[in-house]
Design brief:
Layout: E1 3-8, H1 13-25, E2 31-39, H2 52-76, E3 82-90, H3 93-104, E4 108-112, E5 120-121, H4 126-134, E6 140-143, E7 154-158, H5 168-179, E8 182-188, H6 196-208, E9 214-219, H7 225-235, E10 240-245, H8 250-256, E11 259-260, E12 271-275
Parallel strand pairs: 1-2, 1-4, 2-3, 4-6, 7-8, 7-10, 8-9, 10-12
Antiparallel strand pairs: 5-11, 6-12
Family: Belongs to the universal stress protein A family.
Protein name: Universal stress protein
Pfam family, one: Usp
């Protein structure tokens, strides 16, 4: 199976770090990597007309940067079954992602996150939030600033077991198959027992993961699920965090609110957000 991986780029160090992570994560897997750049002219101020003689060199420079990025990725790759393409488009990042999804049947979008600045800490950033909220076909793998690749021996999958597991769970399994990772299932709840529905969904999940190494972990209710997840990641040497982006879920709350540094969700590991299938 050949994976189709989309790596949007603004030519920043963060975007390149995400590209490197993707190359290493899929080092042993046939893939086509699509490096995409959405070009938009910004900061035009009050000028009513911008001449083509000014715009065209900017566009050509961006196209050259995109080709150079592709060549750089080829040099970094260690797999002859890796192929590389570029997608240059005009408009928004989201337009570019949607075009790639439609034209190339993308399996995964890999993005770098810039990290937070200032007194309040926003974990993801506006571009990542936009993609998470609007992409409904492919998972989004968010690679934190300066994140270095480590073979993902352990994947974390927090879940409330409030919904039946459908096609979404296949994304977790596909990720685990890349490097034979074990899966840590994390349930955070102040109640001592599960409801009948939760038990049924848990049994369904166990059946889905029968061919994988997995562990079930139960934590008491924290004041903040963000703290609980962050602590579990640190204490258990987790390499990748995965979650399904259900409506009214923890992720939905996470992407809406600025989070204070000392209380926040500051994972230093990649975070895969899996879109729900309606």
């Amino acid at each position: 199976m050949r994976h189709q991986i989309l790596v949007p780029t603004d030519f920043s160090d963060n975007a390149w770090s995400a590209a490197l992570y993707a190359l290493k994560l899929y080092a042993n897997t046939p893939c086509t990597f699509y490096f995409s750049h959405a070009w938009t002219f910004l900061n035009s101020g009050s000028r009513g007309h911008i001449s083509s003689s000014y715009i065209e060199p900017l566009i050509e420079n961006a196209k050259e940067q995109l080709e150079a990025l592709k060549d750089r990725a080829k040099l970094e790759s260690t797999n002859s079954d890796h192929q590389f393409e570029t997608i240059f488009s005009y408009g928004s990042l989201m337009d570019s992602v949607e075009f790639a999804n439609k034209e190339h049947n993308i399996d995964l979008v890999v993005m770098g996150t810039k990290g937070a600045t200032g007194a309040k800490k926003i974990f993801l950033g506006s571009n990542a939030v936009t993609v998470i909220n609007k992409v409904r076909r492919a998972p989004v793998l968010l690679v934190p600033k300066k994140s270095k690749f480590e073979t993902p021996k352990k994947i974390l999958f927090p879940n409330a077991f409030s919904r039946f597991f459908g096609e979404e769970i296949k994304r977790v399994k596909q990720l685990a198959q890349l490097h034979g990772s074990s899966i840590d299932i994390l349930h955070i709840n102040k109640k001592d027992t599960l409801s009948d529905l939760q038990n049924s969904n848990l049994e369904s999940l166990k059946a889905e993961l029968a061919d994988f190494e997995f562990n079930f972990n139960w934590l008491p209710d924290y004041n903040s699920k963000a703290i609980a997840i962050t602590d579990f990641i640190k204490d258990n040497d987790i390499n990748i965090l995965t979650m399904i982006n259900y409506e009214h879920s923890f992720i939905e709350n996470l992407v809406k609110e600025p989070i204070i540094k000392k209380l926040g969700f500051h994972s230093k590991i990649p975070f895969m957000v899996i879109p729900r299938i309606d």
